[in-house]
Amino acid sequence: MGNIKTLDLPLKTTPATIEDVARLAEVSIATVSRAIHMPEKVAASTRQKIDHAIAVTGYSANAMARSLRLGRSNMILAIAPDISDPNFSPILIGLEKEARANGLGLLIGHTQGDPLRGIEYLKFMNAHQAAGMILFTGYVPSDPNQPAPRLPPSVAVVEPMAHGSIPFVGVDDRLGARKLLELLLAHGHRRIAFIGDSRARLAHHRRRIGFDEGVAAAGLRDSQMVLDSDGTLEGGRAAIERLFLRDDLPTAFLCVNDQTAAGVMMGLTARGYDVPKDFSVTGFDDIPQANFLSPGLTTIRQPRTAIGQEAMALLLRMLEGEGAEQPETLLMPDLIVRGTVGPPAPWPLNRKGFAKGS
C-alpha cells in the first residue's frame, strides 16, 4: 500500500485509542485529531496513513464512545448572559451542529446577566457533568470569596477574554469597522461620529479601534467624534440628544451595533430628519431586524453559524489534548449595503441642533 506502514499490534481487549492510531501512522496525536475534525488542513498522504491506521486499529472517533471510555461527560456547556440576544442563536446553532456531528450534546446555561448563576453553572462543570465550556460572557464566572475555579477546556465566543486567558473565536471587529468607514468615505463623508465606545465590552472597543485606525489613515483625526453608549436602542437615541446640544454635527454615524443604529435613526426621525438624505447611518452585526428598518440598515454581518462551528471544532481538539494554535481565530466580516448610506447633505442643513424647519 505504497508508503503506508503496517504493524502487528498486540492483542487488546480494550478499545483502540487515538495514541494507537498516532503510533501506527507515525504522526502526532494532534495530527490525528486534526485529520479527523479538520481533514482539509492535513496533507492527503498523511490522511491516507491515518485512515489506514484507524481501519487497522478499529479506533472510533465518535465522541460519545470516547466519553464512555474515559469516564467523561459527552456534554458541552455554553454559558450565555442573554439567550434572547439575536446574535447568540445562530452561534448556538453552529455549536450544536458541530457537537452533534461528533457525538456530543450541548447544554445552555442562561445566566440572565446574573454572575451568581454563572458560578452555579461552574459548579456543574466541576462535578464532571460537562466535558468542556463555551463562554459568551467575556469573563469566567467566579466568587471573590472562593479560590479561583478549575476550568475545563474552554473557548470564548462573542466577547474576547481579557488578557487572552481563553482562546477566542469571533469576527474581526476592527476590520468590520474599517469596512464601514471606508464605505462612508467613498460616499464623500468626512465628518463621521462613532456611537458606542465602551471599555466594558472588548468587542465594542475593538470596533472603536478600527474606526480610529481608519480615521487616522484618511487623515481625518481632527474631525472625528466619539460618543459613549451602552449598545442599546435607548443608548443610541440618547446619544443623538447629547450630540444635538452641540453646534458641530457629523454627516454620518458609524454605530457600534445595530441596536444603537436603530436608536440613532429613531432620534433623527423624531427631529424631522431623513436617513440617508440628511444623515447616513451604519450598524454592526446584521441582526434579523436590520433588514426591516426603514430604510434597511447598512451594516456588518457576522458569520455567526461559522463562528459556532469553528469554536466547537477548536474545543474538540482541546478535549483530545491539543492546545490552541493561536489565542484568537478571527473570521472575516461581510459588508451588507442597504439603504441608510448616501452622500453628505449640503452644509448647513444639519449644522444647528434643532429639528428641521424649526
Characterize the structure shown.
InterPro entries: HTH_LacI, LacI/GalR-like_sensor, Lambda_DNA-bd_dom_sf, Peripla_BP_I. With 358 residues, the chain is of the alpha/beta class. It is 38% helix and 14% strand. The chain has eleven helices and twelve strands. Mean pLDDT is 83; it is low at 1-13, 63-71 and 351-358.
Write the layout of secondary structure elements.
Layout lengths: L17 H8 L3 H9 L6 H14 L5 H8 L4 E6 L7 H14 L3 E6 L4 H12 L5 E4 L18 E4 L10 E4 L1 H14 L5 E6 L4 H16 L7 E4 L4 H11 L8 E4 L2 H13 L9 E3 L16 E3 L2 H16 L8 E4 L2 E3 L22
Parallel strand pairs: 1-2, 1-3, 3-4, 4-5, 5-11, 6-7, 6-8, 8-9
Antiparallel strand pairs: 10-12
Helix pairs in contact: 1-2, 1-3, 5-11, 7-8, 9-10
At CATH level 3, the topology of the largest domain is Rossmann fold
Low-confidence stretches: 1-13, 63-71, 351-358
Full CATH superfamily name of the largest domain: Response regulator
Structural class: alpha/beta
Largest sheet: 6 strands, parallel
Q: What is the approximate shape?
A: elongated
Number of helical segments with 4 or more residues:
11
Can you describe this structure in just a few lines?
The protein is built from eleven helices and twelve strands.
Describe this protein with a few key phrases.
358 residues; Rossmann fold; 3 domains; 6-stranded parallel beta sheet; 4-stranded parallel beta sheet; 11 helices; disordered N terminus; LacI family transcriptional regulator; transcription; transcription cis-regulatory region binding
